[in-house]
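quick one, 430 residues, struct below
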Amino acid sequence: MIKFLFGIVLFVSGFYRTIFVDPVWGLYLFAALTHIRIGQLAEEISLPMNIPMAIALLSLVLYAVSSNYEKKFNRWPLEVWLLGLMVVGMAISSHFAHYNPALSWDKTFDYFKYWVFFVLIIQMVDSLEKIEWFHRTLILSVAWLVYRCYDLRGTTGFRFENFGGDVVADANHFSAALVLLFPFVFKKTLSSDKRIVFCAIILCFGIVMSVVIAVSRGAFLGCIALIILIILNFKQLRRKVLVVTVIVFATVLFFANADQKERLFGVSEATKEETRDESAQGRVNFWKLSWELFQKHSLTGVGIGNFGYYSGPTLEGLKEGEPGHVAHSIWFETLAEGGLLVSIPFFSLLIRFFMKTGKLLRQIRQFAVGKEHENYIRVLRIAMGAFLISATFINRLIYEPIYWCIALGIVHEYLLKDLFRNHQVNERVS
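---
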């Protein structure tokens, strides 16, 4: 009942603010429901499962007629078209999918929804305050995922599975989501308010503890990447970062059981063939098959979501048409299932994200303006970097928050553009 009431409060406040305050609140609510799944809120009393789509449509319509936005649909950076090309590439791949084109078309439609949401973020998030509220939405999502891990403790076997979680139902997917969301929580540990710092540290502990409970070695590597990237990006706060890191990880190790420690700290053994366990060796085999399929179907791939129909008979002794395991890597998943039509725009989006945000950070230092944007941009880069390391070992192409980070990076570019231009003009005048 508590979860149901939480859902009611979430929906009522979200709809109210969307209608009477600003349509951007529809985006916040829609983003929250990516991780806070309706099926989890309605375990005792059913809620309409089409609420997210209704929210998205309402937000779009209200944005089109809202007086809060003088210029509408006026931001169309290259990234919008690259993501659109991905959708087109997936559609072509779906057309040529041999085993399950319906599944491929479903995932293509998911990506079309990603594209619409991507466009709306870029158009509607037009201030640092709105960026901060988006961050708060992601922090709420983190708190929910950690709560779910605590709520289901002892009921899911050796590995935590976020039952009813849809896009984060799998233990590996659940953990990778936490890796991407962690930096948004970590940023709050830099607050001047000690109460916020304390709550953020507790939630950081909950995130890492949840990754340990899920026993995801890919996400554990992502956590290590988080530490390194945070230290590299917040050099002036290195001592504070190290203190927080030591406290969190020492506490986590205290609570972790022997089996969890053995599996996670045995990750180094996966690099050697003679000590590699069945799970790690299986990944290597799936990657090899992915590369072979990419070579045979370089342009279109075998269809998004269709890799299992090849791995089943080839590697797992299943009958023709029985799906086996996935590629277990976002990179091989993209190459094998989407081919060049999907992988080229996808890789281009990632490259442009890191190049663009890196350039913004250099300009902020050069012109000494927009300092309030700097930590926000660093958080996006850390989140994407650590997540992609985790996703190297799991299928995560179908995960929308990847594009939220890219979209927020673009928003920062628009917001900083006038500041940089004015500074350059002032320099010339002086």
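The radius of gyration is 22 Å.
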